[in-house]
Write a structure and sequence with these properties.
The complex is a heterodimer of chains A (about 210) and B (about 300). Chain A is of the alpha+beta class. Chain A is built from five helices and eight strands; from the N terminus they run H-E-E-E-H-E-E-E-H-H-E-E-H. Chain A has a three-stranded mixed sheet with strand order 1-8-7, with no helix packed on it. Chain A has a three-stranded antiparallel sheet with strand order 4-5-6. In chain A, strands 2-3 form a two-stranded antiparallel sheet. Chain A is globular, with a radius of gyration of 30 Å. With about 300 residues, chain B is an alpha+beta fold. Helix content of chain B is about 30%, strand content about 15%. Chain B is built from nine helices and twelve strands. In chain B, strands 10-2-12-11 form a four-stranded mixed sheet. The longest helix of chain B is centred in the N-terminal third of the chain and has 29 residues. The radius of gyration of chain B is 23 Å and the shape is globular. The N and C termini of chain B lie far apart (about 95 Å). The chains are: A alpha+beta (about 210), B alpha+beta (about 300). Chains A and B meet through strand 7 of A and helix 4, strand 3, strand 10 and helix 9 of B.
Chain lengths: ~210, ~300
Protein backbone atom coordinates (compact mmCIF):
# COMPACT_ATOMS: atom_id res chain seq x y z
CA UNK A 1 0.00 0.00 0.00
CA UNK A 2 2.78 2.38 1.01
CA UNK A 3 4.87 1.46 -2.03
CA UNK A 4 1.92 2.16 -4.27
CA UNK A 5 1.57 5.60 -2.68
CA UNK A 6 5.20 6.44 -3.40
CA UNK A 7 4.96 5.23 -6.93
CA UNK A 8 1.79 7.30 -7.45
CA UNK A 9 3.34 10.47 -6.09
CA UNK A 10 6.41 9.99 -8.29
CA UNK A 11 4.14 9.63 -11.29
CA UNK A 12 2.50 12.94 -10.42
CA UNK A 13 5.57 14.93 -9.37
CA UNK A 14 7.99 13.97 -12.13
CA UNK A 15 5.87 15.38 -14.97
CA UNK A 16 5.29 18.59 -12.99
CA UNK A 17 9.05 19.08 -12.59
CA UNK A 18 9.47 18.25 -16.25
CA UNK A 19 7.01 20.96 -17.29
CA UNK A 20 7.75 23.59 -14.70
CA UNK A 21 11.57 23.36 -14.84
CA UNK A 22 12.06 25.03 -18.22
CA UNK A 23 9.33 27.60 -17.48
CA UNK A 24 11.03 28.74 -14.25
CA UNK A 25 14.38 28.78 -16.01
CA UNK A 26 12.96 31.13 -18.67
CA UNK A 27 11.39 33.48 -16.13
CA UNK A 28 14.62 33.65 -14.17
CA UNK A 29 16.73 34.23 -17.29
CA UNK A 30 14.60 37.03 -18.75
CA UNK A 31 15.55 40.05 -16.59
CA UNK A 32 19.34 39.59 -16.82
CA UNK A 33 19.73 39.04 -20.55
CA UNK A 34 20.18 42.68 -21.52
CA UNK A 35 21.59 45.87 -20.07
CA UNK A 36 19.01 48.63 -19.58
CA UNK A 37 19.68 51.97 -21.23
CA UNK A 38 18.80 54.79 -18.84
CA UNK A 39 16.52 57.56 -20.09
CA UNK A 40 18.44 60.69 -21.03
CA UNK A 41 17.14 64.23 -20.65
CA UNK A 42 18.52 66.84 -23.03
CA UNK A 43 20.56 69.44 -21.18
CA UNK A 44 19.17 72.95 -21.40
CA UNK A 45 21.62 75.64 -22.47
CA UNK A 46 23.24 77.11 -19.39
CA UNK A 47 22.44 80.68 -20.45
CA UNK A 48 20.58 82.01 -23.46
CA UNK A 49 21.02 84.88 -25.86
CA UNK A 50 19.76 88.44 -25.54
CA UNK A 51 18.36 90.12 -28.63
CA UNK A 52 20.06 93.51 -29.03
CA UNK A 53 17.46 94.78 -31.48
CA UNK A 54 20.22 95.34 -34.06
CA UNK A 55 20.34 93.56 -37.40
CA UNK A 56 23.28 92.35 -39.46
CA UNK A 57 23.54 93.18 -43.21
CA UNK A 58 21.54 90.02 -44.09
CA UNK A 59 18.69 91.15 -41.85
CA UNK A 60 19.16 88.55 -39.14
CA UNK A 61 18.90 89.84 -35.59
CA UNK A 62 22.11 90.16 -33.59
CA UNK A 63 22.12 88.51 -30.22
CA UNK A 64 24.56 88.71 -27.35
CA UNK A 65 25.14 85.59 -25.32
CA UNK A 66 24.26 86.16 -21.66
CA UNK A 67 27.58 84.54 -20.79
CA UNK A 68 29.37 87.45 -22.42
CA UNK A 69 28.79 89.40 -19.17
CA UNK A 70 27.43 86.77 -16.78
CA UNK A 71 30.37 84.36 -16.59
CA UNK A 72 29.03 80.91 -15.77
CA UNK A 73 32.28 79.92 -14.08
CA UNK A 74 32.29 82.72 -11.48
CA UNK A 75 29.83 84.02 -8.92
CA UNK A 76 28.10 86.85 -10.68
CA UNK A 77 29.68 90.16 -9.73
CA UNK A 78 27.78 92.05 -12.43
CA UNK A 79 24.45 91.08 -10.96
CA UNK A 80 25.31 92.91 -7.74
CA UNK A 81 26.75 95.95 -9.47
CA UNK A 82 24.82 99.21 -8.86
CA UNK A 83 25.07 100.49 -12.40
CA UNK A 84 23.06 97.77 -14.16
CA UNK A 85 22.42 98.89 -17.73
CA UNK A 86 18.64 98.62 -17.57
CA UNK A 87 18.16 99.64 -21.22
CA UNK A 88 20.34 96.80 -22.33
CA UNK A 89 17.99 94.24 -20.77
CA UNK A 90 14.82 95.90 -22.05
CA UNK A 91 14.81 93.47 -25.00
CA UNK A 92 13.82 90.62 -22.70
CA UNK A 93 10.08 90.21 -23.16
CA UNK A 94 8.52 88.58 -20.17
CA UNK A 95 5.12 86.97 -20.70
CA UNK A 96 5.04 84.48 -17.89
CA UNK A 97 2.21 85.35 -15.53
CA UNK A 98 3.29 87.91 -12.95
CA UNK A 99 6.81 86.54 -12.66
CA UNK A 100 9.85 88.82 -12.64
CA UNK A 101 13.54 88.10 -13.16
CA UNK A 102 14.21 87.14 -9.56
CA UNK A 103 11.31 84.68 -9.47
CA UNK A 104 13.52 82.16 -11.26
CA UNK A 105 17.04 83.63 -11.49
CA UNK A 106 19.25 83.79 -8.43
CA UNK A 107 19.80 87.54 -7.86
CA UNK A 108 23.38 87.04 -6.73
CA UNK A 109 24.38 84.64 -9.45
CA UNK A 110 22.61 84.92 -12.78
CA UNK A 111 24.16 81.63 -13.92
CA UNK A 112 21.96 79.73 -11.46
CA UNK A 113 18.24 79.33 -10.81
CA UNK A 114 16.55 79.98 -7.49
CA UNK A 115 13.81 77.86 -6.00
CA UNK A 116 10.93 79.35 -3.99
CA UNK A 117 12.64 78.43 -0.72
CA UNK A 118 15.77 80.41 -1.68
CA UNK A 119 17.95 77.43 -2.55
CA UNK A 120 19.87 77.90 -5.81
CA UNK A 121 20.20 75.16 -8.38
CA UNK A 122 22.12 74.87 -11.66
CA UNK A 123 20.34 75.74 -14.92
CA UNK A 124 20.27 72.09 -15.98
CA UNK A 125 17.78 71.34 -13.17
CA UNK A 126 15.16 73.49 -14.89
CA UNK A 127 12.53 70.73 -14.48
CA UNK A 128 12.70 71.11 -10.72
CA UNK A 129 12.24 74.88 -10.98
CA UNK A 130 9.24 74.80 -13.33
CA UNK A 131 7.73 71.87 -11.43
CA UNK A 132 7.25 74.08 -8.38
CA UNK A 133 4.27 75.82 -10.00
CA UNK A 134 3.30 73.41 -12.79
CA UNK A 135 2.65 70.39 -10.62
CA UNK A 136 0.29 68.39 -12.87
CA UNK A 137 2.58 68.91 -15.89
CA UNK A 138 5.59 67.88 -13.79
CA UNK A 139 3.75 64.73 -12.69
CA UNK A 140 2.77 63.92 -16.31
CA UNK A 141 6.35 64.52 -17.41
CA UNK A 142 7.73 62.18 -14.79
CA UNK A 143 5.31 59.47 -15.90
CA UNK A 144 6.24 60.01 -19.55
CA UNK A 145 3.01 61.49 -20.90
CA UNK A 146 4.21 65.09 -21.33
CA UNK A 147 7.18 66.49 -23.21
CA UNK A 148 7.77 63.93 -25.95
CA UNK A 149 11.23 62.84 -27.01
CA UNK A 150 13.00 60.57 -29.42
CA UNK A 151 14.99 57.35 -29.48
CA UNK A 152 13.72 54.09 -28.04
CA UNK A 153 10.49 53.03 -26.35
CA UNK A 154 12.29 49.81 -25.35
CA UNK A 155 15.02 50.57 -22.79
CA UNK A 156 16.60 47.15 -23.36
CA UNK A 157 17.59 48.28 -26.86
CA UNK A 158 18.49 51.94 -26.52
CA UNK A 159 17.89 55.16 -24.59
CA UNK A 160 14.82 57.35 -24.66
CA UNK A 161 16.09 60.90 -25.15
CA UNK A 162 13.65 63.30 -23.55
CA UNK A 163 13.14 67.02 -23.85
CA UNK A 164 13.37 69.38 -20.89
CA UNK A 165 10.93 72.24 -20.25
CA UNK A 166 12.85 74.84 -22.25
CA UNK A 167 13.49 72.53 -25.22
CA UNK A 168 9.93 73.37 -26.30
CA UNK A 169 8.81 76.35 -24.16
CA UNK A 170 10.59 79.68 -24.11
CA UNK A 171 11.23 80.33 -20.43
CA UNK A 172 10.30 84.03 -20.65
CA UNK A 173 7.17 83.45 -22.78
CA UNK A 174 6.25 79.81 -22.34
CA UNK A 175 2.88 79.69 -24.10
CA UNK A 176 3.26 77.50 -27.19
CA UNK A 177 3.35 79.81 -30.24
CA UNK A 178 0.93 79.83 -33.15
CA UNK A 179 2.69 78.16 -36.11
CA UNK A 180 2.08 77.44 -39.78
CA UNK A 181 1.28 73.77 -40.36
CA UNK A 182 3.11 71.42 -42.74
CA UNK A 183 1.57 71.22 -46.23
CA UNK A 184 -1.86 69.59 -46.49
CA UNK A 185 -2.42 66.49 -48.64
CA UNK A 186 -3.20 67.11 -52.32
CA UNK A 187 -6.54 65.43 -52.12
CA UNK A 188 -8.18 64.21 -55.33
CA UNK A 189 -11.48 65.86 -54.45
CA UNK A 190 -10.78 68.57 -51.90
CA UNK A 191 -9.19 71.89 -52.70
CA UNK A 192 -6.92 73.47 -50.14
CA UNK A 193 -9.36 74.87 -47.63
CA UNK A 194 -9.82 78.59 -47.47
CA UNK A 195 -9.57 80.45 -44.20
CA UNK A 196 -13.33 80.98 -44.08
CA UNK A 197 -14.92 79.50 -41.04
CA UNK A 198 -16.87 76.33 -41.78
CA UNK A 199 -20.52 77.12 -41.42
CA UNK A 200 -23.16 74.64 -40.40
CA UNK A 201 -24.83 74.76 -43.82
CA UNK A 202 -21.70 73.97 -45.84
CA UNK A 203 -21.50 70.59 -47.52
CA UNK A 204 -19.59 68.00 -45.56
CA UNK A 205 -16.03 67.48 -46.76
CA UNK A 206 -15.10 63.97 -47.72
CA UNK A 207 -11.80 62.52 -48.87
CA UNK B 1 -12.89 41.82 -110.02
CA UNK B 2 -12.32 40.04 -106.74
CA UNK B 3 -15.14 38.21 -105.10
CA UNK B 4 -15.50 40.18 -101.90
CA UNK B 5 -19.01 39.74 -100.80
CA UNK B 6 -20.77 42.29 -98.71
CA UNK B 7 -20.92 39.71 -95.91
CA UNK B 8 -17.14 39.12 -95.94
CA UNK B 9 -16.40 42.85 -95.97
CA UNK B 10 -18.61 43.52 -92.96
CA UNK B 11 -17.14 40.53 -91.13
CA UNK B 12 -13.63 41.82 -91.87
CA UNK B 13 -14.41 45.36 -90.67
CA UNK B 14 -16.11 44.00 -87.57
CA UNK B 15 -13.17 41.73 -86.74
CA UNK B 16 -10.66 44.56 -87.19
CA UNK B 17 -12.65 46.98 -85.03
CA UNK B 18 -13.18 44.25 -82.42
CA UNK B 19 -9.47 43.44 -82.26
CA UNK B 20 -8.59 47.16 -81.98
CA UNK B 21 -11.17 47.70 -79.23
CA UNK B 22 -9.89 44.64 -77.36
CA UNK B 23 -6.29 45.84 -77.59
CA UNK B 24 -7.34 49.27 -76.33
CA UNK B 25 -9.31 47.70 -73.47
CA UNK B 26 -6.35 45.54 -72.46
CA UNK B 27 -3.85 48.41 -72.58
CA UNK B 28 -3.99 49.34 -68.87
CA UNK B 29 -3.44 45.73 -67.85
CA UNK B 30 -0.46 45.39 -70.16
CA UNK B 31 1.09 48.55 -68.73
CA UNK B 32 0.32 47.33 -65.26
CA UNK B 33 1.86 43.89 -65.73
CA UNK B 34 5.04 45.43 -67.11
CA UNK B 35 5.83 46.31 -63.48
CA UNK B 36 5.12 42.80 -62.26
CA UNK B 37 8.02 40.39 -62.50
CA UNK B 38 7.51 36.65 -62.98
CA UNK B 39 9.12 35.96 -59.58
CA UNK B 40 6.63 38.28 -57.91
CA UNK B 41 3.73 36.75 -59.83
CA UNK B 42 4.67 33.25 -58.66
CA UNK B 43 5.44 34.33 -55.08
CA UNK B 44 3.52 32.67 -52.25
CA UNK B 45 1.64 34.45 -49.45
CA UNK B 46 3.99 36.04 -46.90
CA UNK B 47 2.95 33.67 -44.14
CA UNK B 48 3.60 30.61 -46.28
CA UNK B 49 7.14 31.61 -47.23
CA UNK B 50 10.06 29.71 -45.70
CA UNK B 51 12.95 31.78 -44.24
CA UNK B 52 15.01 31.01 -47.37
CA UNK B 53 12.22 32.13 -49.66
CA UNK B 54 11.70 35.35 -47.66
CA UNK B 55 15.41 36.07 -47.97
CA UNK B 56 15.13 35.72 -51.77
CA UNK B 57 12.04 37.96 -51.87
CA UNK B 58 13.77 40.70 -49.85
CA UNK B 59 16.80 40.63 -52.16
CA UNK B 60 14.51 40.69 -55.22
CA UNK B 61 12.75 43.82 -53.91
CA UNK B 62 16.11 45.49 -53.23
CA UNK B 63 17.29 44.68 -56.77
CA UNK B 64 14.05 45.91 -58.32
CA UNK B 65 14.19 49.16 -56.34
CA UNK B 66 17.74 49.73 -57.55
CA UNK B 67 16.85 48.89 -61.16
CA UNK B 68 13.51 50.75 -61.38
CA UNK B 69 14.11 53.69 -59.09
CA UNK B 70 17.89 53.94 -58.85
CA UNK B 71 17.87 53.78 -55.05
CA UNK B 72 20.03 51.44 -52.98
CA UNK B 73 17.83 50.26 -50.11
CA UNK B 74 17.77 47.48 -47.54
CA UNK B 75 14.49 45.63 -47.01
CA UNK B 76 14.14 43.74 -43.72
CA UNK B 77 11.54 41.35 -42.36
CA UNK B 78 11.06 42.43 -38.73
CA UNK B 79 8.97 40.01 -36.71
CA UNK B 80 6.87 40.78 -33.59
CA UNK B 81 8.80 40.91 -30.30
CA UNK B 82 7.50 38.23 -27.88
CA UNK B 83 5.79 39.79 -24.86
CA UNK B 84 5.06 43.09 -26.62
CA UNK B 85 1.59 44.44 -27.41
CA UNK B 86 1.79 47.86 -29.02
CA UNK B 87 -0.46 50.72 -27.97
CA UNK B 88 -0.57 54.41 -28.88
CA UNK B 89 -2.22 57.38 -27.18
CA UNK B 90 -2.61 60.98 -28.32
CA UNK B 91 -3.22 64.00 -26.10
CA UNK B 92 -5.90 66.18 -27.69
CA UNK B 93 -5.28 68.91 -25.11
CA UNK B 94 -1.85 69.71 -26.53
CA UNK B 95 -2.07 68.73 -30.22
CA UNK B 96 -1.90 72.01 -32.16
CA UNK B 97 -2.61 70.66 -35.65
CA UNK B 98 0.86 71.42 -37.06
CA UNK B 99 0.88 68.24 -39.21
CA UNK B 100 4.50 67.49 -38.35
CA UNK B 101 3.40 63.89 -37.70
CA UNK B 102 1.87 63.60 -41.17
CA UNK B 103 4.99 65.13 -42.71
CA UNK B 104 7.28 62.71 -40.86
CA UNK B 105 5.08 59.80 -41.96
CA UNK B 106 5.24 61.01 -45.56
CA UNK B 107 9.05 60.95 -45.50
CA UNK B 108 9.60 57.85 -43.36
CA UNK B 109 7.18 55.69 -45.28
CA UNK B 110 8.15 56.60 -48.86
CA UNK B 111 4.79 58.05 -49.79
CA UNK B 112 3.84 59.27 -53.25
CA UNK B 113 5.21 62.82 -53.52
CA UNK B 114 2.68 64.52 -55.90
CA UNK B 115 -0.32 63.66 -53.70
CA UNK B 116 1.64 64.54 -50.51
CA UNK B 117 0.13 61.34 -49.12
CA UNK B 118 0.43 60.32 -45.48
CA UNK B 119 -1.08 57.67 -43.21
CA UNK B 120 -2.14 60.46 -40.84
CA UNK B 121 -5.06 62.77 -41.57
CA UNK B 122 -5.44 65.72 -39.21
CA UNK B 123 -9.03 66.87 -38.69
CA UNK B 124 -9.70 70.47 -37.69
CA UNK B 125 -12.99 70.65 -35.80
CA UNK B 126 -14.95 73.20 -33.83
CA UNK B 127 -14.28 73.01 -30.12
CA UNK B 128 -17.09 71.18 -28.40
CA UNK B 129 -17.87 69.01 -31.43
CA UNK B 130 -16.74 65.65 -32.76
CA UNK B 131 -18.29 66.08 -36.18
CA UNK B 132 -16.16 64.64 -38.96
CA UNK B 133 -18.63 65.71 -41.64
CA UNK B 134 -17.92 69.35 -40.89
CA UNK B 135 -14.25 68.82 -40.19
CA UNK B 136 -11.50 70.22 -42.37
CA UNK B 137 -8.46 68.14 -43.39
CA UNK B 138 -6.87 70.52 -45.90
CA UNK B 139 -6.63 73.66 -43.76
CA UNK B 140 -3.62 75.84 -44.54
CA UNK B 141 -3.59 78.66 -42.02
CA UNK B 142 -1.81 79.38 -38.75
CA UNK B 143 -2.62 76.84 -36.05
CA UNK B 144 -4.17 76.45 -33.62
CA UNK B 145 -6.97 78.60 -35.08
CA UNK B 146 -9.31 80.27 -32.56
CA UNK B 147 -12.20 78.03 -31.55
CA UNK B 148 -10.73 74.95 -33.23
CA UNK B 149 -9.13 71.74 -32.03
CA UNK B 150 -7.21 69.10 -33.95
CA UNK B 151 -7.54 65.34 -34.12
CA UNK B 152 -4.97 63.32 -36.06
CA UNK B 153 -6.41 60.00 -37.27
CA UNK B 154 -4.39 57.07 -38.56
CA UNK B 155 -4.87 53.29 -38.53
CA UNK B 156 -6.09 52.42 -35.03
CA UNK B 157 -4.84 48.79 -35.31
CA UNK B 158 -8.23 47.46 -34.16
CA UNK B 159 -8.32 44.16 -32.29
CA UNK B 160 -11.54 43.31 -34.14
CA UNK B 161 -10.63 44.88 -37.47
CA UNK B 162 -13.38 45.05 -40.12
CA UNK B 163 -10.74 45.50 -42.86
CA UNK B 164 -9.20 42.12 -42.04
CA UNK B 165 -12.58 40.39 -42.00
CA UNK B 166 -13.56 41.56 -45.50
CA UNK B 167 -10.32 40.81 -47.37
CA UNK B 168 -11.21 38.09 -49.89
CA UNK B 169 -7.61 36.87 -50.26
CA UNK B 170 -6.29 37.26 -46.68
CA UNK B 171 -3.74 39.79 -47.83
CA UNK B 172 -4.20 41.72 -44.57
CA UNK B 173 -4.12 40.31 -41.03
CA UNK B 174 -3.36 41.12 -37.41
CA UNK B 175 0.09 40.19 -36.10
CA UNK B 176 0.93 38.90 -32.61
CA UNK B 177 2.00 42.36 -31.38
CA UNK B 178 -1.31 43.93 -32.47
CA UNK B 179 -0.24 45.57 -35.74
CA UNK B 180 -2.54 45.04 -38.73
CA UNK B 181 -0.31 44.50 -41.77
CA UNK B 182 -0.70 44.10 -45.54
CA UNK B 183 1.24 41.81 -47.89
CA UNK B 184 1.50 44.28 -50.79
CA UNK B 185 2.53 41.43 -53.09
CA UNK B 186 -0.65 39.48 -52.27
CA UNK B 187 -3.16 42.36 -52.31
CA UNK B 188 -5.42 42.31 -55.39
CA UNK B 189 -6.53 45.93 -55.00
CA UNK B 190 -10.26 45.27 -54.60
CA UNK B 191 -10.48 48.05 -51.96
CA UNK B 192 -13.04 46.16 -49.84
CA UNK B 193 -10.87 46.92 -46.80
CA UNK B 194 -10.82 50.62 -47.62
CA UNK B 195 -14.62 50.61 -47.70
CA UNK B 196 -14.90 48.53 -44.51
CA UNK B 197 -12.65 50.74 -42.36
CA UNK B 198 -14.83 53.11 -40.30
CA UNK B 199 -11.86 55.45 -39.82
CA UNK B 200 -10.85 55.86 -43.48
CA UNK B 201 -7.36 54.78 -42.49
CA UNK B 202 -6.56 52.89 -45.69
CA UNK B 203 -5.20 54.42 -48.89
CA UNK B 204 -5.21 53.05 -52.42
CA UNK B 205 -2.32 53.51 -54.85
CA UNK B 206 -4.21 54.77 -57.90
CA UNK B 207 -0.94 55.51 -59.63
CA UNK B 208 2.58 54.15 -59.39
CA UNK B 209 4.04 56.08 -56.44
CA UNK B 210 6.38 58.84 -57.62
CA UNK B 211 9.38 59.57 -55.45
CA UNK B 212 12.90 60.82 -56.22
CA UNK B 213 15.67 58.26 -55.63
CA UNK B 214 17.43 60.73 -53.32
CA UNK B 215 14.31 61.03 -51.15
CA UNK B 216 13.67 57.30 -50.71
CA UNK B 217 14.16 56.18 -47.12
CA UNK B 218 16.55 53.23 -47.54
CA UNK B 219 15.66 51.68 -44.19
CA UNK B 220 12.69 49.56 -45.27
CA UNK B 221 10.49 46.67 -44.19
CA UNK B 222 8.60 44.12 -46.30
CA UNK B 223 5.33 44.69 -44.42
CA UNK B 224 5.85 48.40 -43.85
CA UNK B 225 7.51 51.24 -45.74
CA UNK B 226 9.02 49.69 -48.88
CA UNK B 227 7.84 51.59 -51.95
CA UNK B 228 4.43 50.16 -52.75
CA UNK B 229 3.43 48.89 -56.18
CA UNK B 230 0.55 50.49 -58.08
CA UNK B 231 -2.92 49.08 -57.45
CA UNK B 232 -2.52 47.97 -53.84
CA UNK B 233 -3.86 49.26 -50.54
CA UNK B 234 -1.61 50.63 -47.80
CA UNK B 235 -2.01 52.06 -44.30
CA UNK B 236 -0.22 52.90 -41.05
CA UNK B 237 1.76 49.98 -39.60
CA UNK B 238 3.04 51.74 -36.45
CA UNK B 239 6.40 52.04 -38.29
CA UNK B 240 7.06 48.36 -37.54
CA UNK B 241 10.50 48.51 -39.16
CA UNK B 242 11.37 50.95 -36.33
CA UNK B 243 9.15 49.87 -33.44
CA UNK B 244 10.04 46.17 -33.70
CA UNK B 245 13.65 47.27 -33.25
CA UNK B 246 12.71 49.16 -30.08
CA UNK B 247 12.53 52.64 -31.63
CA UNK B 248 9.67 55.13 -31.46
CA UNK B 249 7.51 55.58 -34.57
CA UNK B 250 8.44 58.51 -36.83
CA UNK B 251 5.27 60.46 -35.98
CA UNK B 252 5.96 60.23 -32.22
CA UNK B 253 9.51 61.57 -32.67
CA UNK B 254 8.32 64.38 -34.94
CA UNK B 255 5.55 65.69 -32.66
CA UNK B 256 6.74 69.08 -31.32
CA UNK B 257 4.08 69.24 -28.61
CA UNK B 258 4.76 65.83 -27.05
CA UNK B 259 1.15 64.79 -27.69
CA UNK B 260 2.04 61.23 -28.72
CA UNK B 261 2.69 58.42 -26.23
CA UNK B 262 3.77 55.05 -27.65
CA UNK B 263 4.75 51.84 -25.94
CA UNK B 264 4.17 48.30 -24.76
CA UNK B 265 0.74 47.72 -23.21
CA UNK B 266 2.09 44.68 -21.31
CA UNK B 267 4.71 46.75 -19.45
CA UNK B 268 3.00 48.13 -16.31
CA UNK B 269 5.76 50.77 -15.94
CA UNK B 270 5.36 52.15 -19.47
CA UNK B 271 4.06 55.70 -20.12
CA UNK B 272 1.21 54.34 -22.27
CA UNK B 273 -0.05 52.28 -19.32
CA UNK B 274 0.11 55.31 -17.05
CA UNK B 275 -1.97 57.30 -19.52
CA UNK B 276 -4.58 54.55 -19.80
CA UNK B 277 -4.76 54.19 -16.02
CA UNK B 278 -4.82 57.88 -15.10
CA UNK B 279 -6.14 60.05 -17.93
CA UNK B 280 -9.57 60.55 -19.43
CA UNK B 281 -9.26 58.19 -22.37
CA UNK B 282 -11.58 57.34 -25.24
CA UNK B 283 -11.42 55.45 -28.53
CA UNK B 284 -12.93 56.59 -31.80
CA UNK B 285 -16.38 55.18 -32.62
CA UNK B 286 -16.30 52.86 -29.64
CA UNK B 287 -19.90 51.81 -30.37
CA UNK B 288 -18.74 49.89 -33.44
CA UNK B 289 -16.89 47.36 -31.27
CA UNK B 290 -13.68 47.49 -33.31
CA UNK B 291 -11.53 47.73 -30.14
CA UNK B 292 -8.78 50.09 -31.36
CA UNK B 293 -5.19 50.08 -30.05
CA UNK B 294 -5.02 53.83 -30.53
CA UNK B 295 -6.41 56.01 -27.74
CA UNK B 296 -7.20 59.70 -27.38
CA UNK B 297 -6.94 61.47 -24.04
CA UNK B 298 -7.30 64.83 -22.30
CA UNK B 299 -5.29 66.56 -19.59
Amino acid sequence: MRRRGVRFSLLVILPIIGIAGPVFAQVAAAPVDRKLHPTEVRNPPSLGTLDTGLRDPSGASIGVACATCHDPSHPDALARSRDVPEDFHAGIELHHGTLGCASCHAPDDRTRLRLADGETIPMRDVLQLCGQCHGPKYRDYKRGSHGGGRGYWDSTRGPWIRNNCVSCHRAHAPAYPVVMPAAPPNDRFLPIASDEPISEGKTGQHD
Amino acid sequence: MTDVTRRAAITGIGATLGAAAFAKAMEPIQKFTADLSLDQFLQQHYRELTPDEIEKVLRRIEEETLRDRGARVSVADDRPIPGVQFGYALNLSVCNGCRKCAEACHQENNHDRPSNQSYIRVFEMAQGSLDFEHANTTYDHAVPAPGKYYMPVQCLQCDDAPCVAVCPVEATWKEEDGIVVIDYDWCIGCRYCEAACPYHARRFNWTKPEIEASEINPDQGYLSNRVRPQGVVEKCHFCLHRTRRGKLPACAEACPTGARVFGNLLDPESPIRWVLDNKRVFVLKEELGTRPRFFYFFD
